[in-house]
Specification:
By secondary structure, the protein is α+β, with helices and mostly antiparallel strands. Helices cover about 55% and strands about 10% of the residues. About 15% of the residues have low confidence.
């Protein structure tokens, strides 16, 4: 091979090597840019998460108006909404949050049995609404949904709207109930509820201070979490080795009614 040919081959090899080095350099640069962008997004998400969490540390207390109990509220300081007949021999006390997944699970499993026993006049239920998820995760969906449910109580529609809210509960991190439009959309599923009066009550947060007072009572009670469910004063989930099932609840309530 001539010196000229050897020189050309060496030049081609050096050019190829230089191209490979440049490609490697460009690849490293792109990787760093992408990594930097990802870290930036994660950092922003972390900041937003901290802000959201801190925003809810007061349990959703974003109003300081007078405490206005919904129509027919019962119990100490009128902090409970009762369903079922007054003369029922058994009372189920339920502390729950409309954003709480465990509360939805309780409702989904016990709803039919509770309504059956209410219809027979054997059971009445006292619902206490709290804002635990707002407090722990940020947002206002627990507060706004509870206020809307209290507004439904004013309209005589608490029970069906309560059920609609749990049936359609969004995923826990999704604060969909923090938007009035969503609460009104679900109100349309309850015949006769979506009225100008109900809409105004939801928009004004008429019962927000009442809901906050209910949450204060929940914290003062040192309950283990939501849902807390008591049948005639006894926590039905206290004994995890033998919890009260819907069937056992029915048997206990029917036995009390016959006693």
């Amino acid at each position: 091979m001539s010196e000229n040919s050897e020189a050309k081959r060496s030049a081609r090899e050096r050019l190829a090597q230089e191209r490979e080095r440049q490609k490697a350099k460009d690849k490293r640069r792109r990787t760093l840019v992408v990594a930097g962008a990802v870290l930036g997004v994660l950092g922003l998400a972390a900041v937003v998460g901290v802000i959201a969490a801190n925003a809810g540390k007061d349990g959703g207390k974003d109003t300081a108006g007078p405490v206005v109990a919904p129509s027919g509220a019962v119990g100490k300081d009128a902090l409970a909404i009762q369903t079922g007949k007054d003369g029922a021999k058994s009372t189920l006390v339920v502390w729950e949050d409309f954003r709480c997944p465990a509360c939805k699970s309780f409702e989904d499993n016990y709803r039919a049995t509770i309504h059956e026993l209410e219809a027979k006049g054997q059971l009445k239920v006292e619902y206490h609404l709290v804002t635990l998820i707002d407090s722990n995760m940020g947002g206002s969906g627990s507060l706004k949904a509870a206020n809307a449910a209290a507004c439904a109580q004013d309209a005589g529609k608490f029970s069906p709207y309560h059920d609609v809210l749990f049936v359609n509960q969004p995923p826990e991190p999704d604060d969909a109930y923090g938007k009035d439009e969503k609460l009104l959309e679900l109100a349309a599923k309850v015949p006769g509820l979506d009225t100008p009066e109900f809409r105004q009550c939801v928009a004004d947060g008429s019962h927000n201070s009442w809901v906050n007072k209910s949450y204060d009572a929940f914290k003062a009670g040192n309950f283990r979490g939501t849902p807390t469910v008591q049948l005639n004063g006894k926590d039905i989930f206290a004994d995890q080795s033998n919890p009260l099932t819907p069937q056992k609840l029915k048997q206990a309530v029917e036995a009390a009614a016959q006693g």
